[in-house]
Amino acid sequence: MKQTNIITALDIGTTKICAIIAVLNDDRSLEVKGVGSSKSDGLVNSLVIDIMKASSAIRSALNQAEEMAECKAQNIYVGIAGDYIKSQNTLGRISLSTGNEATEVTPEHLSNVISNARNNVKIQQGNERMDVIHAIPQFFDIDGQDGIMNPLNMTGFNLTAYVHVVMADMNIMKNIIKCIEICSYTVQDIILEPIASSFAVLNEVEKDLGSILIDIGGGTTDIAVFFKNSIRFSAVIPLGGTNITNDIAIGLHTSPANAEKIKIEKGNTISKDIPKDLTIKIEGIAGRDAKQKRLRYISEIIEARMREIMEDAYKILNENHELKLITAGLTITGGASLLKNCDRLAEGVFNMSTKIGYPQLDRLSGPTDRLQSPKFATAVGILYYVQNEMIEKNVKLQAYKTTDGFARFWQSIVKFFKDFV
């Protein structure tokens, strides 16, 4: 059965929903056809609290992308994040041979050893309600020889896989999928957002030498560590840009909408850079009188919350990973990374080279101007992730078409295996 070459990336966040429809051409290059975005509604910290409102917001973003692309959104890949996600490193082990002769490692052996790692996690107490969404091999061991990156066709008696397993609460994930199904779409696959974002903002050298990725979204901050071209650690902090907005609204006695505007236009994460006597006018709530507030005070609010996020991330990483192995440095992405001097603050906390992660668009053609922002790192990364999957699996493509009646050409979609499983 042929696989259509239309790929739809859907990033469902706390503050925004972004949809990108792209085409994978015959030469496996990606061409953006349509982009849509909408204000996120019916979700709090990536959790569905009103399924109909959430569905309406998702439909709005997809419809915008469809109108621009002149085709139906198909092969929908969804990026997820939230504190309902759990990850851990684990081992899978299998015997390659039952006799006295070593056996050559086959693709079936790789599938079996990673399945063993998945099962080892699933049977652990507390994981009964979790679904595995990623089982990513880090490296392998054959008969005690470790650090093997690709054991295929090597020989031995026993094979061990070191695997990073990512799980999500099955009911929470089902609610997100249900929101999309209510809009008459089918989810092709689920991808952890920091994994997706890494494809957009990190190159192979960074992933090989050791790099930290911190994606600060509206409701959560996602953390991932990459080393030797594989993910070594991931975690979620239940704090994000919305918390900064709420702090400003409370501190200034203004509306959340006005607080968000102030954060974006006047925000600075290094408060000492702001002159003490500089003030701005703050609108009152529901017609109340406007007041003058010191801009440094506003920056102090922003800095306090951003420092908390960075210090929490540092603590988690320091407890779970050898930070001295991080040679390439730290990358900050997501909407809140656009706050002025965010990289300076992070560099001070982590004491390592830091950059803001803008999505690398050189692998995309078409209308990409709207995508030149860290806000779109996850959506762009989803496209690259799927592109890599299709190239590795040599998926046969069906020609892209545009038509006024595009709703008529729904295609049966092959659910192909991911992460070697």
Description:
By secondary structure, this protein is an alpha/beta fold. Among the domains are: about 80 residues, 2-Layer Sandwich (Dna Ligase, domain 1); about 150 residues, Nucleotidyltransferase, domain 5 (2-Layer Sandwich), CATH 3.30.420. Helices cover about 35% and strands about 30% of the residues. It has ten helices and 23 strands. The strands form seven sheets. A six-stranded mixed β-sheet has the order 14-7-2-3-4-22, sandwiched between helices. A five-stranded mixed β-sheet has the order 17-16-15-20-21, with helices on both faces. Helix 1 crosses helix 3, helix 6 packs across helix 7 and helix 6 packs antiparallel against helix 8. It is globular, with a radius of gyration of 23 Å. The two termini are about 20 Å apart.
In short:
Helices cover 33% and strands 30% of the residues.
Indicate the CATH topology of one domain: Nucleotidyltransferase, domain 5
The biggest sheet amounts to: 6 strands, mixed
What portion of residues belong to β-strands?
Answer: 25-35%
| Spatial ordering of strands, largest sheet | 14-7-2-3-4-22
Primary descriptors:
disordered C terminus; Dna Ligase, domain 1; 6-stranded mixed sheet; 5-stranded mixed sheet; alpha/beta; Nucleotidyltransferase, domain 5; 421 residues
Which helices and strands occur, and which strands form pairs?
Blueprint: E1 3-4, E2 6-12, E3 16-24, E4 30-39, E5 43-44, E6 47-48, H1 51-69, E7 76-80, E8 85-95, E9 103-104, H2 107-122, E10 130-142, E11 145-148, E12 155-156, E13 158-169, H3 170-182, E14 187-192, H4 193-201, H5 204-209, E15 211-216, E16 221-227, E17 230-237, H6 241-252, H7 256-266, E18 279-282, E19 291-294, H8 295-320, E20 329-333, H9 342-350, E21 354-356, E22 364-365, H10 377-393, E23 397-398
Parallel strand pairs: 1-23, 2-7, 4-22, 7-14, 15-20, 20-21
Antiparallel strand pairs: 2-3, 3-4, 5-6, 8-13, 9-12, 10-11, 10-13, 15-16, 16-17, 18-19
